[in-house]
Amino acid sequence: MAGPDARALVLGSLPGQRSIAEQQYYAHPQNAFWPIMCELFGIRGDYGFRCQQLIGHRIAVWDVLACAIRAGSMDTDIRLGGARANDFEEFFIAHPEIQLIAFNGKKAELLFERFVRLPAVHESIRCVGLPSTSPAYAAMSFSGKLLAWRQALQSIVT
Q: 71-102 in b/e burial notation, b at 16+ Cβ within 10 A?
């Protein structure tokens, strides 16, 4: 999900079972992504309206991997053999204003480093690893996650 003028790209690793079933990013009710977006940008409402609001704030959301085998929804269960990354070269051509890639969790960052090579023209894009919004990452409080996400996103998006 991205508007043509997106400035920030939030990358997850691979959708979980709930997100796949509902065809929605961060569909698990305990995932902190949408509550964080609500706190930072006032984004609320049904899924379609929340997506429109994210696009209005020039935030794109995608996953590093287009496909991979994974039993369940845990990032630790992603099998790298046969995994395939999304087409980032095409994405950055279509979204030339991207200034920030925000990785939603360490696994997304590691997968990006392993599978994606940014062309030299994109050296100006800042990359930042953020605490995962997944309910499986309980080592950090919601307020800690919120602070990290605020510091990363608010300077780059409207």
A: eebebeebeeeebebbebeeebeebeebebbb
